[in-house]
UniProtKB/TrEMBL annotation:
Gene Ontology MF annotations: NAD binding; NADP binding; oxidoreductase activity, acting on the CH-OH group of donors, NAD or NADP as acceptor
Family: Belongs to the HIBADH-related family.
Source organism per UniProt: Halobacillus karajensis
Domain 6-phosphogluconate dehydrogenase NADP-binding, residue spans: 3-160
Active-site residues annotated for this sequence: K172
Residue ranges of every copy of the 3-hydroxyisobutyrate dehydrogenase-like NAD-binding domain listed in the record: 167-285
Metal-binding recorded as keyword: no
One Pfam family of this chain: NAD_binding_11
Presence of keyword Lyase: no
Entry keyword set: NAD, Oxidoreductase
Descriptive protein name: 2-hydroxy-3-oxopropionate reductase
Lineage: Bacteria, Bacillati, Bacillota, Bacilli, Bacillales
UniProt record, GO biological process: organic acid catabolic process
InterPro entries membership: 3-OH-isobutyrate_DH-rel_CS, 6-PGluconate_DH-like_C_sf, 6PGD_dom2, 6PGDH_NADP-bd, HIBADH-like_NADP-bd, HIBADH-related, NAD(P)-bd_dom_sf
Amino acid sequence: MMKIGFIGLGNMGFPMAKNLLEAGYSVYGVDLNKQAEQRLTEHGGKIGTSIPELAKICDFIFTSLPSSEAVEEIYLGEEGLIEEGTSDVLLIDTSTVTPGVNRRIAEACEGKSVSFLAAPVSGGVIGAVNKTLTFMIGGPKKDYHRISPIVERLGENIFHVNEDVDSGTKAKLINNLFIGFYTAGVSEALNLARESGIDLENLYHILNVSYASSRIYDRNYNGFIKDEQYDPGFTLKLLRKDLGFAMELADQHHLDLPISRNLLSMYEEAIEDGYGDKDMSVLYRKIREQAKS
Ligand code: NAD
């Protein structure tokens, strides 16, 4: 049976690993958080395999990690996946990282049998649970063809952006820049609606069939704002991370994006005010609370 490693069993990684188990693959999970590992065994996952061992026995290894630093450590560190990978294992990183990390990993693979694809995802935790994720894959087309039958068990829309290993990450960062704009826009506009005496539910039904409709309006309003519950979700902290990466990408291309810069400051301020671990839609509440004070 094909062996798949899965490193990082958090909000996104756990449901993806579980879906691979349900698709009939043999899955070896690794996480710093032992409870997350334990949870995987309840669904038939195997745990207790070290990263060097994983790199030797697996056909494919996925990673879903919270930061670029964690990704670099797992791939490029001592006893990391690249150093230890001896078979023709294909490594697939689904994390959102700073532009350039993928390239460093791909360069480290040169001259080795190990291959690497950067495959960031969109669709959130719900998409990971329901297997409706969008994958934006950058790297060699032949490796994309190798991984396609497996990622088709995790997502609905699988795209090969181009052969540049950073290309999926660029598409993903642009996606998240849009999300940052929409989330801020929805938060400000709905505060205006409330303060000016418009019922938010009524407004949603009107705007959902008008040009203001968007998937983020739908998600943020129906999933969070409506019931005033902001359990993540996609944390404001993670969105801020991705906006920072998008700005790095803009800097690399000597592009000044003044509205995006302001957006980034807005999210940074929200984190300083203690909203970082809530779903990003909590920006609506922050604006409301500021209006009250
Ligand atoms: P998370 O914090 O819930 O999960 C990350 C997991 O990685 C945690 O369980 C943590 O213990 C584990 N981990 C951290 N360092 C590790 C290490 N060195 N070795 C082993 N395990 C380690 O984060 P998440 O929400 O699942 O996001 C994961 C990635 O997916 C991020 O890069 C994020 O930007 C991206 N992403 C998230 C969403 C979302 O909606 N949450 C959507 C799309 C993409």
